Amino acid sequence: MQSFGSLFLVVLGELEDLLRYHILLVEDDGVQADIIREFLEREGNKVYLAVNSFVALQIVRSTRLDAIVLDIGIPVLDDISVCRTLRNEYCRVPVLMLTGKIADDELLAGLNSGADDYVTQAVGPSALAARIYALIRRTQRFGVGSSTLLGVRDLVIDTERYDVRVAGTSIPLTVKEFSILAALARDPGRVLSRNQIMDRVFGVDQSILRRTVDVHVMNLRRKLRSAAPTRVYIETVYGVGYRLSKAGGIDCEFGPNDSDVAGGSDVEDSLMAGLCGDRPPG
């Protein structure tokens, strides 16, 4: 027969599972951390607080989480290093970067490291919570429901298992990268503009920069290319947007000087350069 103490712990554990979301807040500013944590807990969430990256990584490795809110400038490892470490360990928990100001190079570095979204510290706790919930819902939308397989040729997207494979090789993607690829794969050959991608992936948030879509597509192409070095699945239609190749990708030769940085090459005005390169739609 269980003792009262052990029974209490079992009940407590079950109650914790019923909490709305499990959120890790990585913030070294005590005042800011208290404001955010108290608001999220009043909304029925379980909030784990880490004051530096070392503690944050320990929590991630030992706890079931629905989202991570990561402040720029945290001690020990910076936010970029933390994101990169998480993604290298195949952690797919969505990451929201909390930044004091939006500098283009800082934003691109964060997204390139594996962050899914960002928000400025100027927003209030209710707006921050709304962004966190939206990010979690988008993640869960691709993790539940009946098995749905999308893709073309040797690119297979399993929206139930949140899995992408190229010729049998699993490709780890962030939430936003997966969402963009799934949106394109639902209608191969159809061009989606940046605005259409933003509506489907980022929702109604008007603060998202159009450049953000280009960065996610650039990273997505790079990851797919790791399994199929000469094949381009996502084509750029200059002046319009992006599409998933209906034929299952086109074969392109990438030289040693080819860059994944948006901006094009010496032959980017040609049709093939537009399809193969990472030049934005315009």
Number of helical segments? 10
- Rg over CA atoms, rounded to whole Å, is 20 Å
Largest sheet: 5 strands, parallel
User: How many structural domains?
Assistant: 2
- The named CATH superfamily of the largest domain: Response regulator
Order of helices and strands: HEHEHEHEHEHEEEEHHHEEEEH
Catalogue the unreliable spans: 6-18, 143-147, 254-274
Structural class: alpha/beta
Shape: elongated
Approximately how much beta-strand content do the residues carry?
15-25%
Strand order of the largest sheet: 2-1-3-4-5
User: Helix fraction?
Assistant: 40-55%
Give the integer mean of the pLDDT values. Answer: 74
**Which CATH top level class of the largest domain fits?**
Alpha Beta
Oligomer: single chain
Distance between the termini: 69 Å
CATH topology heading of the largest domain: Rossmann fold
Count the E strands. 13
Describe it:
The chain is an alpha/beta fold and 282 residues long. The chain has two domains: 138 residues, Rossmann fold, CATH 3.40.50.2300; 128 residues, Winged helix-like DNA-binding domain superfamily/Winged helix DNA-binding domain (Arc Repressor Mutant, subunit A). It contains ten helices and 13 strands. It has a five-stranded parallel beta sheet, sandwiched between helices. Helix 2 packs across helix 6, helix 5 packs parallel to helix 9 and helix 7 crosses helix 8. The radius of gyration is 20 Å and the shape is elongated.
